[in-house]
Design goal:
The protein is α/β, with parallel strands linked by helices. It has 5 helices and 7 strands; from the N terminus they run E-H-E-E-E-H-H-E-E-E-H-H. The N and C termini lie close together (9 Å).
Length: 196
């Protein structure tokens, strides 16, 4: 299967699909962190290149519910921020409506202001073998919901407040480090969707 992983610099999902025997390529404005097939540039350049599946992790800074507090800072609508959110929505929808048979878009809970389509499911790293909480939505087209592979019990999950855990690591690169897809989720995508 020809799989495009859009907005991925880590190569995590790409390499999980390659390991499962697929022809996968990542794409990001940034170079890839891990050597492998990667297009560094705008995903719209290659979106119509005959892919069987698209998995995309578009930027969430201006769309997410967590970011909404900046939208109404001082109780008035921040117009610039709102316009940035609308641009992010346009990019999200461009990916979601791509002419590709199977599509999955991953993002945090979006702010209702932007009226994105309803997501198909939410997942957590602790359902896929990582002892962390990070609620993530999946918008799916022609793909089944992901089934948890290894659920970590509540008492064994780590709080994001612990210094030095994945949420707080990374110094200047913290934002980038936090955005990396968890390996267990990438493996579940490759196993459960790669067999279709
Ligand atoms: C939230 S990060 C996703 C990181 C991903 N989960 C990973 O493991 O690498 C969003 C990424 O989208 C990329 N991006 C933004 N606009 C893009 C575009 N037009 N084409 C390709 N990548 C884009 C950014 O450079 C950023 O790395």
């Amino acid at each position: 299967m020809k799989v495009l992983i859009a907005c991925e610099y880590s190569g995590t999902v790409r390499d999980a699909f390659i390991k499962a025997g697929h022809d996968a390529m990542s794409c990001d404005l940034l170079p890839t962190d891990t050597a492998g097939p990667h297009y560094q540039g705008d995903v719209t350049d290659i979106l119509n290149d005959g892919w069987d599946m698209l998995i995309a992790h578009p930027p969430c800074t201006y769309l997410s519910n967590a970011g909404a507090r900046w939208l109404y800072a001082g109780k008035t609508l921040n117009i610039k921020r709102f316009e940035q959110g609308l641009d992010a929505k346009t990019f999200f929808l461009l990916l979601f409506n791509a002419n590709i048979p199977r599509v999955a878009i991953e993002n945090p809970i979006p702010s209702s202001v932007f009226e994105l389509p309803k997501y198909s499911q939410t997942i957590q790293p602790y359902e896929f073998g990582h002892p962390f909480k990070k609620k993530t939505c999946l918008w799916l087209k022609n793909l089944p919901k992901l089934t948890p592979t290894s659920v970590i019990s509540e008492q064994n999950r780590e709080s994001t407040k612990i210094p030095g855990n994945w949420f707080n690591k990374g110094g200047k690169e913290r934002q980038k480090e936090r955005a990396r897809t968890f390996q267990g989720i990438a493996d579940a995508m490759a196993t459960q969707w790669g067999c279709l």
